[in-house]
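Record format v2
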Amino acid sequence: MHSSVITFPGSNCDRDMDVALKKFGFKNKMVWHDDVELPKSDLVVLPGGFSYGDYLRCGSMASKSKIMKSVLNFAQGGGKVMGVCNGFQILVESGLLPGVLLRNKYLEFICKNVFVKVNNQDNSYFKDNKKEVYEFHIAHNEGNYFCSNDQIKDINDNNQIAMFYSDENGNVNEQSNPNGSLQNIAGIFNKQKNVLGMMPHPERMIDPALSGEDGSLFFENLINNLR
Amino acid sequence: MIVNEKLAIDHGLKKDEYKKICDLLKRVPNITELGIFSAMWNEHCSYKSSRFHLKNLPTKGKNVIQGPGENAGVIDIGDNDAIVFKIESHNHPSFIEPYQGAATGVGGIMRDVFTMGARPIANLNSIHFGSPQHKKTKNLLRGVVHGIGGYGNCMGVPTIAGQTSFDESYNGNILVNAMTLGLVKKDKIFYSKAAGLGKPVIYVGSKTGRDGIHGASMASASFDDKIEEKKPTVQVGDPFTEKLLLEACLELMAGDSIIAIQDMGAAGLTSSSIEMASKGNLGIEINLNKVPCREANMTPYEIMLSESQERMLIVLENGKEDLAKKIFDKWNLDFAIIGKTTKSKRIELYFDEKKVANIPVNTLVENSPMYDRKWKKAKLPKKIKIQKEDLKGLKVVNVLNKILSNPNVCSKEWIWQQYDHTVMGDTIQKPGGDAGVVRVHGTKKAVAASVDSSAVYCWAHPLSGGKQIVCESWRNLISVGAKPIAITNCLNFGSPENEENMGEFVECVQGLGEASAYLDFPVVSGNVSFYNQTKDVGIKPTPTIGGVGLIKDYENMVTMDLKEVDNILLVIGKTEGHLDQSLFAREILSEKNGPPPEINLFNEKNNGETILRLIDQKFIKSAHDVSLGGIVTALSKMCIKGKKGATLKKPNYLINEFEYLFGEDQGRYIIEISKDDLKNVTKILKDNSVHFDELGMVNEGDLIINDKTKVSIDDLIKSHTTWLTNYISN
């Protein structure tokens, strides 16, 4: 399986993602934002960080990077594209995913472990996943998902919500919502479910010595599904 | 502009210093030159009041690659790996503008580390605020925390540990000390010593603006009523540009183009160019028209004194200009050849084809003033006799609750949750433990780091306090299973022109030096911040120690959370019930006099080394050093972290219950061991002449202190976690 991780100026989880993908068997290549063509890839990942300092709106300048044209084409042709944290923000800014990510409800950066409940398995990311509730790590200032009434209706009608913030038993409630996200949304798909955007960082949970190991389950499952 | 004595005094120079400048130059300096002298000779850059005493600190050791005098210290951690680290203050700017002040403090210290070729792998900070009730405290706390997070998070460097305290002596002068650790290969360390003649001098990074002019001079003076007017002297940070600068510098450093490199920190282009020239014993010629400027019509004076952030000065090998430029172009950063090295041993500046400054480098550095200031020796205060009546009516539960919720003990989760502490994927001990720990990427090794200060002890008796903080740092590293290697210090004091404040400095440094020499825990880098003072009132003396240690195999790392029911708890080190200057005495009895606890360096060393032996043999399940709030506070934190309880045994001591539980005797740890190992552990402790007491046992869910005193873990958690969140949200 070949994967590509895009490095934008200001990306800072690109190396972590590279380490994680390789650990679970991907042959990963790092791709510079100013490149025109994507290498042969079964999965393209937009990593976390502060692309262009997040100075205009998070992800907005990166979404206009040269490489993004190829990423858009790749996604429109059904290629798997995953955006984590800032990568998710870039995906919504580029129009590959609906909605926006606003500043966290309490106006503070949050770095902690959270639980997320996987909403559907009807896609290559979570098909046959071993757990319904994952313990993942979040680290963001703008993860408060929001969209219009029409959009959320569409999203629900198409079963596009990938995961909700929940408690450890999978109950989706206000107490388990860390950032004020609409309907506790932690991640969403596009209609075809080949594009996934999520705020949590599975790449930070791939070793028992770290915050936990649920990221390992996620990546193992992902590579199996793509094979 | 006419330069005269009055203008020199306005620049923060003293009368006789101005006279010395005129004598050295054999003429009156022009305005640009005066600006340069004032920047180089202020306290912040010249260490004129502290150098005399700092030279006595132990700075050498078998693991020390680079001691003080470079951008940061460097230690050897084996296998061609080295750790570069330093702590630095950004106190004055953070009080004036908390967000930018704190942010640029973090940015500045990271630049010091990657200037040496190291990729930053961990940040720490030690921040101190006025009384929580003081009207400015809440906003300063918010601003500083946001600033530290804003910069560190964007850089993608985890903030792994820290320290926050509140004390009314910081009402008018808060402290923000930031520390960074970086990882470098031993054979790829870069230094600031220029070498070779006619080598191009390169400017890279952000453009130069009018921000931060005279920042270092501002940080070398006390505050007065007009402090708000100093806002323009605070620099403005751009972490995005620094991230690009980091990547670009490391890319260039992978090759062999760089002769010397120096970041532009305090006093900007002035100090960076002069330091490189001074260390290389040569001259530098700069054409100021070539310096990339953000604003039009900047004068040579402004260009030389700007403290705009995210800039570096590099001396390149001839012929490497194009290659270097290509890298900086790729990262969208300015790159300009602004001058060259010369044999003149002078700093020569040109602007609009005129020579605007011409100063021998040695007059700025070697000839800078050095003062052996007057200082007053502190007496050891008399021991307080605590009256039995004072303790009557006190209930252990109530006292414990009060101590756990004390602003200086309570959980700081609200703070560290705003710092990305897991980016880079190697953080194996998060904030909230004894020390933060990160793995050395791709290896079995891990590096532990901790920041500590004990202003109350240092204020009560500077010599003991100075020793105590080094020992506390040492204990924090031992507690996670790390072998302590070296320290960096950030010495925050009031005015050196006041004999008492100067005495506090001298004796703290003396204590610090004694302890670090005894423990073979040398000082490899540091910074002095004087004039933490508003009008006549200085802060409590607050030397901050950043300690670094090595864990050879990270699987042997120890944490403080209680692990298993029925395990045995031991207190290592002798409990004598020292209450003077303890949190108990201050907060419960309102007794602020008396000496701080004594330090026995032999016991510190012996206890610590023996614990490391026990850890190596995997006997220790959890460990925590005993500090503020004594045994029961330390144990409560272990209970909270492990969500388990503990049952205390009746102590073998004849001292009072409060002395036993809340006394702050030094050199102590609580360790958890399995019942089966008790005999072996006891033997090792006895063989090494380490004093220990059996404290009790781990249980399911209550802290049982005696027959009448039982506290549930939920109550402990509540006491420990509510103060800060309530304070911030109200």
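The first strand of chain A starts at residue 2 and ends at 7.
DSSP finds five helices and eleven strands in chain A.
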